[in-house]
Write a structure and sequence with these properties.
With 94 residues, this protein is mostly helical. It is built from 3 helices and no strands. One of its GO terms (biological process) is regulation of DNA-templated transcription.
């Protein structure tokens, strides 16, 4: 796709200067700027939507089981005998 922009002279000079510093044509540098500003937002939007879909799911039983498994695994895989999640603190601190 081709886009034609009417750019003020001061912006054109800055684009040209920075593009030359980076060894790019002004067009290549402008495309690089557009790509860097548009694509991350698209990825961020997809990520936010995915996380929101996980939050909206009603998997409380699965989350409870996963949490208990993680706590058990973390307590078992320690060099120390001291538990990270002692039974007497369940419901108090975690």
């Amino acid at each position: 796709m081709t886009i034609t922009l009417n750019v003020p002279p001061e912006i054109e000079r800055q684009l040209d200067r920075i593009a030359k510093e980076q060894g790019l044509s002004m067009e290549a540098y402008a495309l690089k700027l557009l790509t860097e500003s548009v694509l991350p937002q698209d990825k961020s939007t997809k990520l936010v939507n995915l996380l929101q879909s996980w939050i909206d799911e009603d998997d409380t039983q699965e989350q409870q089981e996963t949490g208990e498994y993680l706590i058990q695994a973390l307590d078992e895989d320690r060099l120390s005998d001291r538990k990270l999640f002692p039974d007497e603190l369940k419901g108090v601190t975690w």
